[in-house]
Design goal:
Layout (H helix, E strand, L loop, with lengths): L1 H36 L1 E5 L14 E6 L11 E4 L10 E8 L3 E5 L4 E4 L2 E2 L19 E2 L4 E5 L17 E2 L3 E10 L15 E2 L2
Antiparallel strand pairs: 1-2, 2-11, 3-4, 3-11, 4-9, 5-6, 5-8, 6-7, 9-10, 11-12
Length: 197
């Protein structure tokens, strides 16, 4: 009788372990699937978005599977074959299709549909002309992007980047997951973790 009870406990314990492993496997697969479809993680390289984003920052993106309508002010990650072999770049959406962008390079002011943008996020004024002619009306299905660190940013001002087809947008930056060190010159500032704007 006692051996039968021990055998039942063994079977019950092994069934519990199998069920636990089974459930854990399905939960892990669900999390992986959610991250493959909904989110991506990108590491910022370069200074084009400094001070908003630092070199080495880890960003959580809402994937383009669920993010299809970029809006002015969004920070997006782009892959454009004509620039740096399609390596992902991070920029800010300045204008969307149908909007007209003009830049006064002497004053460093960006205008969208005749209105000067209030840009508290930029490091310096927009005084560098990269070769694109203005005013420019954004084509259907495209966006116009600029980096926040305008003097060093290669963005829609440069003909090799130009307007971005929305199909080239990998996703929208949701939050900063892990801060970078800005080329190793600054300590990680964990107070920066969270939403970005």
């Amino acid at each position: 009788m006692a051996s039968k009870k021990k055998q039942e406990e063994k079977v019950s314990l092994s069934q519990s372990v199998v069920l636990y492993v089974h459930d854990l496997t399905y939960m892990l697969l669900s999390v992986i699937l959610v991250f493959l479809l909904l989110f991506r993680v990108i590491v910022v390289t370069g200074d084009s978005m400094y001070d908003t984003l630092w070199d080495g920052d880890f960003l959580l993106l809402l994937s383009n599977v669920f993010y299809s309508r970029p809006e002015q002010g969004d920070i997006v990650v782009i892959s454009k074959k004509s620039f740096d072999d399609g390596k992902p770049i991070v920029k800010r959406v300045i204008a969307t299709e149908g909007q007209t962008v003009d830049i006064d390079f002497e004053q460093g002011i960006v205008y969208v549909d005749g209105q000067a943008l209030q840009e508290p996020y930029i490091r310096d004024l927009t005084t560098q002309d990269r070769g694109t002619r203005f005013p420019l009306t954004v084509a259907p299905g495209c966006i116009f992007v600029l980096g926040d660190n305008r003097p060093v940013s290669r963005d829609s001002r440069a003909p090799e980047i130009g307007q971005i087809d929305t199909r080239e947008v990998l996703g929208k930056a949701l939050c900063l997951m892990l801060p970078g060190t800005h080329h190793g010159s600054l300590p990680r500032d964990f107070d920066r973790i969270g939403a970005i704007g």
